Amino acid sequence: MHFTSETSSNGVIERTFTLDDVTGVLWSPESGPAGAPLVLAGHPGGLDKKAPGHVARAHSSVTIDGFHVVSIDAPGHGGRPRSAQDERWVAEFRRARAEGSPSFGHILADYCASVAERAVPEWQATIDAVLALPDIGAHVPIGYSGMSLAGAIGIPLAAVEPRITAARFGWLSEHDSLLAAAKQITIPIEYLLPLDDKEIPRGFGLELFDAFASADKVLHAFPGGHAQVPTDGRLDTRFFARHLGRAVGRPAA
Amino acid sequence: MHFTSETSSNGVIERTFTLDDVTGVLWSPESGPAGAPLVLAGHPGGLDKKAPGHVARAHSSVTIDGFHVVSIDAPGHGGRPRSAQDERWVAEFRRARAEGSPSFGHILADYCASVAERAVPEWQATIDAVLALPDIGAHVPIGYSGMSLAGAIGIPLAAVEPRITAARFGWLSEHDSLLAAAKQITIPIEYLLPLDDKEIPRGFGLELFDAFASADKVLHAFPGGHAQVPTDGRLDTRFFARHLGRAVGRPAA
Question: How do A164-170 and A142-147 pair as beta strands?
Fold first, then answer.
């Protein structure tokens, strides 16, 4: 892990890094005790690790909960080159979406599954590298948060990665591999389901939620289309604060 | 409104009352500012205003949020006589449930709709009487909380009662009158849907949730059967604290 920049503002230290050919960013509290939990924050498809809403959520986790948050660009996103196969997929699902074709969801899900296969080992290497940092340490609790493409990556990741102990997903396109991975997952799950998403039928959201083997899981459903997350508190159960704990000595929200 | 007893414990004043032939209970903070919000807490069918879980939830609203909480026995519940027609209904749905008959849900829903018709004006009279108390006052924010039978009462109540400004429902048996009433409701709604309820198909829960005209609504779905509410925080969005406000000067949760 090679740090490429370090800045600090509003109580948050931001360090960008490279890890082999992966580009990423680590946000940390400017002050606080050792042992703070770590959230792995995946970005949705078409965006990257520095998308404004994504950064705002990360800052909020750092300043309110005292967490570290790490995000990496998915293959073909941010500064990372897109393969010829990915280019074809993206062109194909954009055309299907523009034409209102019912095959849109399946093309997108196939693309997501392919990106996920490549991204899972990258996230595992990222966890190894972040836990090796002296200001974080090998034993911090770890959560994963990711919607849409980042959910398609996070579900197979959480299925194989025992260091992740709580996860928040949502906006998933239908793919059998997600159901199979969800059946392997037993950690606490929070799942977000927008009910008016024209691109993703709500039935798959319920089927996927049912598939998680977790006893402690909850689905939050709400009006709205793709990627419109209500930020008025109605989805806020303090999920990571409850499951990862709060860094000792941080102020209460 | 005639108070029949007053006791106090753990910071909560409990006053039982009668209002015509309705029996009820009002829980209030032992100390705190005037103007605290009021929650109308309906009890599920087969229980009454003093059921232990129901009382525990009321105490928590009083001590954590500084709210007043009022509950009345539904017709035929608690100390209130059951009509001959209600006796027949209850016998019929108990038999249908014991036999595993698919008609169970509809018999229960018809019974709930009949109880609701009688209970709605009783709740309205209760609101009038509580708001006339000098330690409460005519202008406090009001929420309604009720599952199962208490949801079947609360939905038509909220449809006709503009003083209710936020409501929490769940566990509803299928009845067309509920869909019609939900379409009249525009206040913030939180809806609880257990996904393994053998007595109530989840499809109706989603249909009813869709019917609420509220822009600010959220459905929380979770594993479990009828009346098994997770109390581990996964459903806790501080709904009433967000929508009714917190009594000024109460300590934060």
Answer: parallel
- Residue A195: CB atoms within 10 A of its CB come to 16
pLDDT for A253 beyond 50: no
Contact criterion met (CB below 8 Å) for B227 and B198:
no
Q: How far is CA A202 from the centre of its chain?
A: 20
In a domain, A97, yes or no: no
Residues of A in contact with B210 (CB under 8 A): 195
Chain A residues with CB under 8 Å of B234 CB are 188, 190, 216-218, 237, 239, 242
Q: Is residue B250 part of a domain?
A: no
Nearest-Cα residue of chain A relative to residue B192: A220
Q: What share of chain B is helix, strand, coil (3-state, %, to 5)?
A: 35, 25, 40
Considering only the beta carbons, identify the residue of B195, B218, B238 that sits closest to A220.
B218
In a domain? residue B102: yes
Cβ within 8 Å, pair A237-B242:
no
Q: For chain B, how many structural domains are there in total?
A: 1
The CATH number assigned to the domain holding A224 equals 3.40.50.1820
Does B41 map to a domain? yes
The whole-number pLDDT of residue B251 equals 42
State whether the Cα torsion B108-B114-B115-B117 is positive or negative: positive
pLDDT tens for each residue of B196-229: 987 778 899 999 999 999 999 999 999 988 777 8
- pLDDT, one tens digit per residue, over A4-14 is 999 999 999 99
Output phi, psi for B5, to 5 deg.
Answer: -160, 155
Task: Give the nearest partner residue to B237 out of A195, A234, A252, using CB atoms.
Answer: A234
Chain A interface includes B232 (CB < 8 A): yes
Which residues from A are below 8 Å from B209, CB to CB? 195, 221
- Nearest residue, CB atoms, B234 vs list A218, A223, A234: A218
**Nearest-by-CA chain B residue for A210:** B223
| A230 touches B: beta carbon within 8 Å | yes
Do residue B222 and residue A217 have CB atoms under 8 angstroms apart? Answer: yes
The ipTM value here is 0.92
- Judge contact between A62 and A29, C-beta under 8 A: yes
Structural domain boundaries, residue B53: 2-244
Instruction: Report the alpha-carbon distance of residue B40 to residue B19 in Å, rounded.
Output: 15
Question: How does pLDDT run across B37-51, given as a tens digit for each residue?
Answer: 999 999 989 899 999
Q: How far away is chain A from the Cα of B201, in angstroms, using its nearest Cα?
A: 13
Q: What are the tens digits of pLDDT across the range A142-157? A: 999 999 999 999 999 9
Tokens standing for B201?
């198909």
